Structures are given as C-alpha cells and as structure tokens.
Amino acid sequence: MASSSSTATVATAKLLYRQLLREAHKINDYNFREYAIRRVQHGFREAQTNQQQQQRQQQQQRVAGSAVDGLFEYVNHSVS
User: Is residue 51 within 8 Å of 63, Cβ to Cβ?
Assistant: First the structure.
C-alpha cells in the first residue's frame, strides 16, 4: 500500500515539474525564462537529494535498531 502512495506522489511531482517547466518556457524575456527554468530544475533536484538523504538515514536507523536488538538478545542469552 505504501508503494501505491509513493507512486502517486512521484507521478504528482513529475506532473508539477513538467507544468512548471512548460510555464517557464512561455516567459518572453530570455533572462527571466532561463532563470525560471534553472530554479525549477534546481529546486526539484534539491528536493530529490533531500528525500534520498532522509531515506538513507531511515535505513541506517533501522539497521542500527536491529543491531542493537540483536546485541541485547545476545547479551540476555549469554547471561541466562
């Protein structure tokens, strides 16, 4: 169920990205148009990087949590 939710989020983000780029391309002034395009691209790249970092941190926390659980289990078994 989480994958369908994340799939919908990804599809929505792609749609928004394309719409923003499409609108940016409509700007007549070259400097403003290029600035808008760069900002859209940079903003989405930055958001993607932040999301990847959060996923990596969550993965590390899960691994650390399971390692700690395993250690406690080992210690409790050794003590008994």
Answer: no
25: part of which helix (H) or strand (E)?
helix 2-25
Mean pLDDT of successive 10-residue stretches along the chain, which has 80 residues: 72 94 96 96 91 85 75 68
Cα–Cα–Cα angle for 40, 42, 46, nearest 5°?
A: 120
Residue type, 40: V
CA distances from 48 to 4, 12, 17, 43, 54 (A): 18, 14, 12, 9, 10
Nearest residue to 24 (alpha-carbon basis) of 48, 49, 46, 41: 41
Any idea what DSSP says for residue 27?
-
Q: Comparing C-alpha atoms, which of 59, 69, 20, 61 is closest to residue 40?
A: 20
